[in-house]
Amino acid sequence: MATPFLLRVLEEPRYGWAAKPSTREICREWFFRLNIFRSRAAWLPIAGWFWTLCLFPFGVVFLTRYFSWWLMLAGFLYAMVWIGTHGTMYLHRFSTHRAFKVRNGLALLILRNLTPKIVPEEVYVVSHHVHHALSDKAGDPYNATNGFLYCFLAGELHQPIRRDLTEKDYDHVCQLVRHTGMRCNSYEQYQRWGSIAHPARLIAHYLINWAFWYAAFYAMGGHALATALFGWSAMWAVGIRTHNYDLHAFGKDRRQDGVDFDRGSLAVNAIWPGFVAGEWHNNHHLFPQSVRAGFLWWQPDISFTCIRIFRLLGGVTEWRDFKPKFFERHYRPYLAARGNELVPSPQAEGQRQAIGRLANFQRSDERRAMSGADDDLVSERQAQT
After folding, report:
1. How far apart are CA 382 and CA 157, in angstroms?
2. pLDDT tens digits, residue range 204-247?
3. Any residues with CB less than 8 A from the CB of 75 and at least 6 apart, and which?
4. CB proximity list for 68: less than 8 A, separation 6 or greater
5. pTM of the prediction?
């Protein structure tokens, strides 16, 4: 449910939130937002594209000087699996939904910088709270029903925070991101730059992070490996812009009974992002604060596996796991309803027995999940008041 704060926290485009804008309106607004001569607050949208475009020369160097099919495969897997998994772990489950807690500043530093930095926290986190409050409705910053371009350019058009927030609202915004390790601007700095992050600090973070990872990749495989992995990172940086459009079924209702249980959004449990990053998106919308999103036996969750490893190493102290509640509130009732729908016939008893065996299997899976959970969550969704 959208609170008054979430309804006003983002900068509204000139075409408004209510109507679906035309392609021309979207393009005009995009150039308007990137006009640094109009407002210095345009620095953050410009920076997002600048760092993305800076990744492409690495790919060009790799393709022209160091190309090999093995390194192509390595780059593909690194970008699609590891960077995607890190985005799910850090930006999505930790930064936005606080599904788990880290032990100390060192653990946070490691978690924050497990890959080359691509997406600034404030661009992702604040707008994602609004997305969950208004999924696929007017005001959703990446409303899939408004089309591909609306989502692809959302980072500049719909995700930046308003530039005229009151001091109280700005402090509320800062509370949404402080746990990520961001050092927030003062209110006076925010009024000058229109952002939570100071340009100098964000640029320094990118430079140090990229220098570290390029040196690490170079030490492992020379310029060939480093350029391959950085070059493929550009593919992820562009692809993430279509992430929500894809996972909300291109704005169409393609939810399947028995697979997609959340009916408050158009999110679907798509196979590719689920398998490569644990991004079972409909499950996530059902329980957004869950440390895992892969609830069923056929839904692997590599992000949760990585979080578990980080916990074994001492980096994670608490988490919130909704898998037992998923079975209790959704899956077992669904199986029971399916069993009651079976018509009397010679085959009906066999069908009921098969469903019963599946239910028993899922109950045992639930018990294993409950034994591994640290704590339970009182409420299903984080209240932003």
Report:
1. 25
2. 999 999 999 999 999 999 999 999 999 999 999 999 999 999 99
3. 62, 228, 229, 231, 232
4. 224
5. 0.88
* Distance (Å, whole) CA 309 – CA 111: 12
Calpha distance 178→30 (Å, rounded): 29
Both tokens of residue 51? 């760092």
Contact 267, 257 (CB under 8 A): no
Asked whether the beta carbons of 120 and 44 are under 8 A apart, the reply is: yes
Helix (H, G, I), strand (E, B) or coil at 33: helix
Q: How many helices (H) and strands (E) does the chain have?
A: 19, 2
- Do the beta carbons of residue 105 and residue 133 sit within 8 Å? no
In sequence order, what DSSP letters do the residues of 310-322 get, joined into one string?
A: HHHTT-EEEEB--
* Distance of alpha carbon 328 from alpha carbon 113, whole angstroms: 37
Q: List the domain boundaries for the chain.
A: 4-328
Q: Which two tokens mark 152?
A: 């692809």
Going from the C-alpha of 332 to that of each of 296, 300, 301, the distances in angstroms are 12, 20, 21
Whether residue 86 contacts residue 115, with contact meaning beta carbons closer than 8 Å, is answered with yes
Locate tokens 């696929």: which residue? Answer: 136
